[in-house]
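Data deposition worksheet. Section B asks for the primary sequence of the deposited chain exactly as it was used as input, without tags or linkers unless they were present during the calculation. Section C holds the resulting structure in token form. Section D is free text for depositor observations; keep each observation to a single sentence. Incomplete worksheets are returned to the depositor.
Section A, Depositor: J.P.
Section B:
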Amino acid sequence: MKSLQDTTTLHNGVKMPWVGLGVWRVNEGEEVVQSVKWAIEAGYRSIDTAAVYKNEEGVGKAIKEAGVPREELFITTKVWNDDQGYESTLSAFEESLKKLDLDYVDLYLIHWPVKGKYKETWRALEKLYKDGRVKAIGVSNFHIHHLKDLMEDAEIVPMVNQVETHPRLSQKELLQFCKENNIQMEAWSPLMQGELLGDPTLVEIANKYKKTPAQVILRWDLQNGVVVIPKSVKEHRIKENADLFDFELSREDMKKIDGLNLNKRVGPDPDNFNF
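Section C:
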């Protein structure tokens, strides 16, 4: 990994950038348009949104205004829980595509493992993939048992699993399972929504490398083979979050960060959510 445009290759051969901009809780309209444009100007090529974020239109507008060729960008969106099921997922996808004003999406994800529905939803994603409407398909917030259950009946193994991952929730077993099954793991809330930025261990390591704690955390993810999509609406922070390619954490420092794990979440547990 030498630059922001560097990619990991998914098991179907599609190339996905290691670093992207997440737009969860970024307001539709000027805020999301500006954030995405700043990111693209800074060299980001991956943008991660979702139907439930209600900002797909703004993301689409920013893509048009940024003036970068579509094929150079990697756009992710997700089907929301209320729309899960076969036909309803196909309809939800068309709605997302319309809002984004795109001809295809690079990655389409099942947002949460809704019991009794995610297998039918996956069947719809497989159809969209076979029809060439999406370049890659995957899941979000799936535990190992969800993945095993899905893969029992799936024709296509998910290419990506996007989950909450950060030094307090390192998800080592899940990461190992994903690697063994050629599923690319991707971290949402990699900075634990800012909670980790004052952690003494991370501050000490950051000072050693003359980097910020955020940069150290994101670099830790990358060295573990995990894709990151940090969110910010501030231009300097968007640039800072991408400045990860001029240093490498030592094995000792990687272990120190691993040692911060408490299996602590900031989001819901995928085995126990009610939305």
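Section D:
The CA atoms of residues 59 and 208 lie 37 Å apart.
The beta strands are 7-9, 15-17, 21-22, 46-48, 74-79, 105-110, 134-140, 160-164, 184-188, 227-228.
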